[in-house]
Every structure is written in structure tokens, then in C-alpha cells.
Amino acid sequence: MSKPSLVIAVLEDDHHKMLVYRYLRRRGILEHQIRIERSPSGRGSAEHWVRNRFVKETNAYRSRHAQTALIVMVDADVGTVQDRLTQLDQALMNTGKAPVGAAERIARLVPRRNVETWILCLNGDAVDEETDYKTRNAWSRLIAKAAETLSQWTPPRGEPSELCVDSLRMGIRELGRLGF
Amino acid sequence: MLTRLYIDNFRSFVNFDYRPERKQLLLGPNGSGKSSLLSAILYLKQFVKGNENPFTQSTRTRWQDRPLQVVEIEALLDRKKYEYRVEIRCAPETNRISVSLERLKVSGKPVFELVNGEIHFFPNDSSQATVLPLETTNSALHLSQLSNSHVRRFVEWLQSVHCFFIDAYPGAMDESADREEEQPDDELENLAGWYRYLLQAYPEENLTFLKSLKEALDGFQALRFSSDEDGVRKLRVDFATPTKERVNYSIAELSEGQRCLLALYMILHFLIAKGNTVFIDEPDNFIALREIQPWLLAAEAAVDSYDGQLILISHHPEILNQWASERGLRFFREENGHVRTEKFKADPAGNLQPSELIARGWEDE
Asked: Which of A73, A119, B12, B197 is the 20 to 30 Å CA partner of B148?
């Protein structure tokens, strides 16, 4: 008997990976229902890899009849969230495919400045989206707590706190598209 | 947590300095020394028990003629740095083995020392060492366990460092559990006896373990012990049939892959999730592709949550692609010389997955 993956996640690196994995487990998704594809190179050139992979996975999502959800996560870095969303849509259109539709279970997560901003924000730190917090240490424990908070802030069960940065607020709305 | 291992004049290790990370993948060609690293740790564990000395003339580096073998191990325990060093001399003419130095330091201060035929005990409540003459071929560290809690802590920690070469071939894992076994052996031959102990010691963790097995093994229902006609308790595995009945199998009747999954989830829930240091040589052996990532992600989360340490040796693309980029350590030997290591270098352009880079032999370019 096969055990099909229900959620496919295309991610840049380990911090993305563990945040998304722990979040999904918090939302009740089983170990075997998660499939993670991460960039082979870590951050730097990872954004380009994620975008290419996103096109392939979106095509696979659209051609699969069984219920599936797709998560893509790419840091905004020094750009804007909208820049990244446009790049993802443009990547689809460059291959003759439609951009992501409102009814599709595809969540595009774009942390600004990067995922570490979200992790700290979800741990209750006052952060801004310009500063690069990557050089701090001891991320493992922070990621576990961040995933717990992210789950609490995801509708319909919860909503973001006032401390929530804009890109995270948008990400939470995206996660709401997945339906779990 | 294991923080350093130094090996000199053992198999292909010459002046070899290894600083493990909390999660690490050891990769590299066959014969590059990965599994021998685990052997060195197992030999050290055996040595420190004090009954026998596995370091012999034949474990020295073959192409050298040096009498002294050296192993150092360092750990961070209870926020204190523990440093253990042993020097084993093999007399050139007689091949007679002797321990020329054995020392344990905690936060830079010696708590045990065997040097120049004298053993120095440092009791907890005294800075004055007791000195006694001792010529030995075995470790004497255990003699100090009762008088010094740091020595006891170190010895217990070292025995909790596990190096697994899971042997899932038919007949390798003993299904009988005539007694509880507190420690698993390195090939998990005593899996049934170990599980009998775990069931008593960790009933709550057992529920999580069984839940994982239900996800990983199709139709899995339960693990239970039953006694045969001679009264020997044997570990049986219950599976559901298509007609919703239960059938049970012995461990020997499972497939190699099923036995491996059983072993891997036991290691995950009862060792990694207890904060232990665990090495596993090729955990992917016999495992279906579909099963590797779920175990790996769960193991990674357990290391993070419980401050464990997991070091894998693997050639499997799935594990290489998940772990090599950020935590791969490549082992290699130039012209069959001593073992060397370097951090794995991922494709800077991000075009090739680590497994493909390795398959092409481009990983050292």
C-alpha cells in the first residue's frame, strides 16, 4: 500500500526546512505526508533553484488528481515580497503556464528580510524587515518555538499578534490557502 | 556531546583530528576510513571497560613502524569540558602491549592519571592525589569510578555513545529476550532484549515509537512478547490482514527492510530523543526510498529538540541531497595514505544535487 505525500515543500535551506516541517507536524500532518525538496547549494544561489523547482512542482501539482498542497519558500533578501511573488508568477508564465490562481492550494512564503526575521518575530522579538539577523546562534530551539507560534497564528484557529511583520502576515494568509 | 576525537597510529588514521557537529554526514569513497572511525570509538568503549585491550600490534597503521597508538576524546558534559587521552605502547621486539599514559581532565584539571607506572587517584573531596604503582595492559580508569564522580560521569557517557552497523540479515537479530538488556549492541543483535528493557523503562516513549511504526510499516499493529514451550520470551510483531484480523510474525520472518525500520525507529525514539550521541553506518540499507526522508526529518527534529547528536555515514542519494550541502564531511585518502577530511563543497551554481556531484566524481574539484 502506498502512502502518498500530501504536502510538497520547495525550500532554500535547513532553517526553511525545519520551520516548515515542524509547522506541518503541528498542523497534524503525518511524517509520511510531507515531502521536502531543498536547494542543493544552501542560500546564495538557492533562490534561482527554488524558482525553477517551483515551476516543475506546480506542473506536477496541477496534473495530479489526488488532493495535494504545495509550499514554496524563498527569502526576499534585499528585495520586496512583491518582487519575489512576481518572479515566481513570471517563471510559470515563461513556460506557458498560468500564474498561481486563488483557488489553488499553493502557499508562497516570502520572509523579509529572511526566514530568521520570521523565526525571531515568532519567538516574540521585536524585529524589522531590513536587518539581517542570520548571524545569531542557537536557531534550532528558536525554530521549534517559531513553528508552534506560527501554527497558533494560522487561521481559522488563530491570528497574528500585533508584533507580526508584514511579510509574515502575508505568509500566514498564504498558509490559510492550504486548508489545514 | 562529543566534541573531538583524535586518533594517531590506528588503521589508516595518522594524526587525525575530528571535530563532530551536532548533525553530520560522513561521506566519501569506500575504504576512506568512515566506518573505521566508528570502530575506533567502539574499541575505546571496550578498552575503558577495563577487561581487555582491543588495541594491539595489528591495529597500528600498517605502513608505519611507530610503537605508540594514541586516542583522545573530548566531550561537553554538564557544561564542563572532559578530555580523555590514552597512549598504548607496543614493544617493538616482543609486541607486548602496555598502557603508557591514561588521563582524564575535567575543565583542564586532571581527575585521573596513569603515567610512568603510577596511578593517580583524585578523590572528589580532596585535591591531594593518592599515588599507587600499577603496570597494566588494560585501562585503569574504572578503578577510580567510585571515588570520583567526574570519572563515573565520563565512563557512563562514553558507554552511551552508540555506533551502529545495523545487521538486518536473516538470523542476525535474536528474537528471544530471556533478559532485559539496558544497552543495544552495535549490530542490534539484542534488539528484542533491549526492547524488553525499554518497554519497562520508557512506557510513554514507547507509545510514540509504536505510533511511528504504524506510519512506517504497512499494517503494523503492535509489538508483544510471547513465551514459547520452553518459557523463553520472544518478540513478535502483529500485522493486520486484509480481512482485518491480526497475524503475528517473529522478527526473523520480517523482511530485512522491516527489521531495519524497526531498529531505526527504536534508535530515534529511545536514543536520539534522549539526547544521546549516535553514529549510524548506512542507515538506508534495505530501506525503501519512500521511508528514508520521513525518518531523517523526524531524527533531525529530535536532535534539535533534545540536544542529541546524530552522525550518519551514507552513500544514498536521498541522504546526500538532504544533508551533504550543510553538514557533509568528506573522507578521502590520497594514494591509499592516511585518512583526511574536508567539508563537502556543494555545487556553487546550485545546478547539481550533491548525489549527482559525487556520482560524477566532481566533488573534489
From this structure: B197
Rounded CA-CA distance B78/B96 in Å is 38
CB A38 within 8 A of CB A64: no
Strands B246-250 and B233-240, how do they pair? antiparallel
Q: How many CB pairs under 8 A join A and B?
A: 74
- Sign of the Cα torsion A162, A165, A166, A172 reads negative
Q: Which residues contact A104 (CB under 8 A, 6 or more apart)?
A: A61, A62, A177
Contact A21 B297 (CB under 8 A): yes
Give the A window 9-48 contacts with B, CB below 8 Å: 13-14, 17-18, 21-22, 25, 30-32, 34-36, 38-42, 44-46, 48
Those residues whose C-beta lies under 8 Å from the C-beta of residue B87, and which sit 6 or more positions away, are B68, B69, B70, B99, B100, B101, B102
Q: Which residues of chain B have a CB within 8 Å of the CB of A30?
A: 215
Stated pTM of the model: 0.94
Is B60 in contact with B69 (CB distance < 8 Å)? yes
- Residue A50's identity, in one-letter code, is V
Give the three-state DSSP class for A1: coil
Burial grade of B196 (CB within 10 A; 0-12, 13-18, 19 or more): buried
SS3 A135: coil
Which residues of chain B have a CB within 8 Å of the CB of A38?
Answer: 321-322, 325
- Measure the CA–CA gap between B341 and A135, rounded to whole angstroms: 26
Q: Which residues contact B120 (CB under 8 A, 6 or more apart)?
A: B110, B112, B113, B114, B129, B130, B131
- Residue B236: CB atoms within 10 A of its CB come to 18
Whether B275 contacts B307, CB under 8 Å: yes
pLDDT at B168 over 70: yes
Q: Chain-centre distance of CA B115, in angstroms? A: 29
The helix or strand, by DSSP H or E, that contains position B226, with its residue range, turns out to be strand B220-227
Of B294, B304, B346, the CB nearest to A32: B294
d(CA A105, CA A99): 13
pLDDT tens readout for residues B231-276: 889 999 999 998 989 999 999 899 999 999 999 999 999 999 999 9
pLDDT tens column, A19-70: 999 999 999 999 999 999 999 876 567 899 999 999 999 999 999 877 899 9
User: Using CB atoms within 10 A of its CB, is residue A130 exposed (0-12), middle (13-18) or buried (19+)?
Assistant: exposed
A25/B215 Cβ within 8 A: no
CB atoms near residue B241 (< 10 Å): 9
C-alpha–C-alpha distance, residues B208 and B219, integer Å: 17
DSSP letter, residue B244 = S
- B354–A40: do the CB atoms touch at under 8 Å? yes
Query: Minimal Cα–Cα distance from A123 to chain B, Å?
Result: 16
CA–CA separation, B202 vs B225, rounded Å? Answer: 16
